[in-house]
Design brief:
InterPro entries: EMP70 (IPR004240). Belongs to the nonaspanin (TM9SF) (TC 9.A.2) family. One of its GO terms (biological process) is protein localization to membrane. It is a multi-pass membrane protein. It is elongated and about 90 Å long. The protein is α+β, with helices and mostly antiparallel strands. Helix content is 54%, strand content 13%. Helix 13 crosses helix 15 and helix 14 runs antiparallel to helix 15. The chain has a four-stranded antiparallel β-sheet with strand order 2-1-4-5. Strands 3-11-8-9 form a four-stranded mixed β-sheet. It has a three-stranded antiparallel β-sheet with strand order 6-7-10, with helices on one face. The protein is built from 15 helices and eleven strands. The two termini are 52 Å apart.
Length: 588
Amino acid sequence: MAQFLLQVLLALTFWIGSGSSGPTRYKAGDHVPFFVNKVGPLHNPSETYQYYDLPFCPPDSVIEKQETLGEVLNGDRLMSSLYDLKFKEDKTNAVLCHKRLTSSEVARFRETIAQDFYFQMYYDDLPLWGFVGKVERDYSGHGGEENAKYYLFSHLNFNVLYNAADEVIAIQSLSDPSYMVDISDNAEIDVRFTYSVSWNLTSERSETRMDKYSQASLHPISKKIHYFSFLNSISVVVLVVGLLSLLFMRHLKNELRSSSNGDEEEKREVGWKLIQSDVFRCPPNVSLLCAFLGTGAQFLILIVALFALAFTGFLYPYNRGLLLTSLVIVYTLTSVVAGYTSASFHNHFEGTKQKRSVRLTGILYTVPFLIIVSILNTVAITYGATAALPFGTVVVIILIYTLLNIPFLMFGGVLGNRFGLSEFQPPSAIKRNPREIPTQNWYRRKLYQMFLGGLVPFSAVALEWHQLYASLWGFKIHTSPGIMLFTFIVLILLSASVGIILTYIQLSGEDHEWWWRSIWCGGFAAIFMFGYGVLFYLRSDMTGFLQLSFYLGYTALLCYALFLVLGTISFLASWMFIRHIYRSVKLE
């Protein structure tokens, strides 16, 4: 069985992971791969359409490039074109085609130009962009009315750089403003599409040809934002960790010292010592709790693996679908971690019925993911967008989940049951009936602690979270894995520290039901992140139902995954803290 799973994984990895290759050496006059990809409105990154959905000049037979799974998930639809950019061959005003645009095609172009449509192409696996046309607005009319002129760009200038090793290093497409066609009137018109190509030698090496696409994140303004975010994160960490170490730990040591001195009056004042027979009581829905921990551990390992790939240079901007391909592969492999963690903790807390925890682990994130993606795919199909998944891709995803994810998850569950944590033995006997929880002060209540537990970590990473949203849903490339890793570490440290502090405050009020609250307090930072995502959308230029649905859907899935991770971190930190203090009491 294990050998079969390995063979299936290797076969699918070869297919879904075979992305774009590195630069190729050419000879003068050699054909260089050129593909047109997609078009879409500038401010709606999820709303993209196939290139030939607009009435450009298609070949007699359009050949679609065989794409990887990551490219399809990314919405790429690469197709052949009439552009012929042979290596080191300059061209001037080469005719692409003569085309007579009907009134409906003119209206289609005019509509896309009004929405700032851009196009994307690939030349030797290097991306290039350009605008379909431009709008000139004049408000000097009668009564200040707007008079708009719509112009279609009919000529492209391609500037290509190559090095001494005969490798393509860079390409840029520029629309020539002297070749514009006025399509303001809704009438048929003849358009002559042309292009020019110029080749220039550069000393740049092929290893650095993708670096230019990350220069947006190195802009001086972006650097200042990153530095300010760094200082903000350090300040919050110092304050929280200082509070934890100087005040909290000192106060806790005094309480333990009073217990060892035998002062009965001081003992009576310390609420958390009074509930040592209830604090380790098995929580309600323990199977769901263990499934939560398993899924959170899986996403934590997945994030760490993606950071490792980014630091090795494997992930870089505009490597078509490579990030999504990596997500599919790493998520499949880390299913073993999810099954192992859930079964191990279930065995640790209860000792029986580990299978239920493993089954819940398999659906805790997958079911919401499939529901949201199915809805979004239906919306994309309705709009005819490239984000719509073909039927074959849906079948492949189902096969990956059934042939790989589920078996790996079950295999992890078996490992967790056999080699995981042993059954936990509490320091003191657990009473048959739980202790009654007294009325709590306002600062010990669940909603207040959840709000505080989410606000503190989010305030430390808010600036970098804005940069991440701008990268995911805009055109600001965030390509500094070091800064992102630092931000993630800060988020983990604060979630753990704040989780311990809030758990201690809860136990001091003789409230022993800390299990699920520690998860909610840690994961609530993701609720703040989603709320900020809504604010980010309202302040952006994104419009339309398709973009709105994709933005909210995928932002919700991202924040839900972070909720699982941060909730797991907070719970584990609280669990280790509670075990430590009650064992200290037993030793005293």
